[in-house]
Amino acid sequence: MAQAGDKRRPKGQSGAANAKRSASAGGAQPARQPSGKKPPAANTAGKTSGSRPAGRQSVAAARKSTGGSNRTQLIIGGIAVLVIGAIIVFGLVLNKQQTAVQAEGYGASTQSVATESNGIVSVSKSGAAPRVTLDIYEDALCPICAEFERQYGQQINQAIDDGSLAVNYHMLNFLNKSSFSGDYSSRAAAALLCVAQQSGAQPGVYLAFHSALFSSDHQPEEGGSSDLTNEELGKLATLSGASAAAAQCASSGQNVAAAEASATASSATLSAATGGQVATPTVVKDGKPVSLSVNWLGELLGQA
Question: Could you give the number of structural domains in the chain?
Fold first, then answer.
């Protein structure tokens, strides 16, 4: 006879099944997840809870930094290019202004005449009363004198032709030692004296020969391997319009001694005017050297 409180299991059921039924009847149930959501994944190496991966943060930061740096460098580089370009353009413009040929297009003198005294050649317009008289010191081998002639020769021609300027030309010879022959400066100065003496009254001839001696076609190179012979100087005088007598004088070297004596005296005069400096080209007015700005002659004529 069954006793009270004695619970019996249905026949054929196992303990595991009974346990399952017990849990369904009133035991604790497993936690449920919200519908459609996956459980959070566990933290893995290189990740921190609630933040981006550390590696991605570094790359993003590096990209941001590199981008800004590149833009800054491009801006600085662009500015530098603009500044350099502006400096180059300014330099080219300034150089063009500083080397511009004055009175370009005027050409050769047509009214000037020349007279010689003690190796100094004075050039002016016949019968004119010039407002300005200049002493110009040159050496026939001097390359800067050639540049001076190129830049200011036409302006000087024009001012002499219109009667406002007179020029006393002093030819020095301190560059003899730099010439191929060893005495070119003296011989060229002698040829100039020949033209002044024999053809100075012919309008424009002296200045034409003077200009020819400094032209790139005829001026020898300082320290070069050749220069003009006396015969070649005579031929150049003829091409410049000088008489046969002037050409013969130059070809024979007739005035070399006189040219050397004049160069010595003129060097002493220039040294006194400049405080001891003997250089060519030098322009002197009223015993004082002239500062050669671009428009130096225009300024002197305007002040007279």
Answer: 1
Nearest to 262 by CA among 132, 112, 135: 135
Domain containing residue 297: 112-303
Give the pLDDT confidence of 245-279 residue by residue, as tens digits. Answer: 999 999 999 999 999 999 999 999 999 999 999 99
**CATH number of 185's domain:** 3.40.30.10
Residue 224 lies in a domain: yes
- For the chain, state the CA radius of gyration: 50
Q: Is the dihedral of CA 120, 124, 130, 132 positive or negative?
A: negative
Residue 180 lies in a domain: yes
Contacts of 238 (CB under 8 A, 6+ apart): 244, 247
d(CA 259, CA 109): 24
What's this model's pTM, rounded to 2 decimal places? 0.71
- Write the pLDDT tens digit of every residue in 64-99: 555 567 778 878 888 888 788 777 766 665 555 678
